[in-house]
Design a protein that fits this description.
Blueprint lengths: L1 H33 L11 E4 L4 E4 L11 E3 L34 E9 L2 E8 L1
Antiparallel strand pairs: 1-2, 2-3, 4-5
Length: 125
Amino acid sequence: MGPDLVQETTEQIEMIRDRLKKAQSRQKSYYDAKHRPLEFFEGDHIIKRVGPVAYQLALPPNLANLHDVFHVSQLRRYISDDSHIVQPDDIDVNKDLKFVVGPSKVLARDEKWLRNRVIHVTYLD
């Protein structure tokens, strides 16, 4: 009974390994079909490449307090369009980098049920 059990277990292990290889191959083909390697170059708002997947960006002065190194997954190529120009709202920031939000107008209130719990939702202007 001992050698038969060892043989059966070995065959099952080989079958599991084969199925894992097939699943990994299938997942790799799905990834490869949609994956396009992103690479950016100095000059398109990128100062330099910091590592294999990190870039240092040239941020505007109003964002100078942000960390300027980003992972490639956070970056997208930008195609210039005049309709994309957004004027930022004026925000008064205190010396300690805090700002006060003024009162808003309540537009509507609603209740949403989540299983056995009620969540109150308020829509502000």
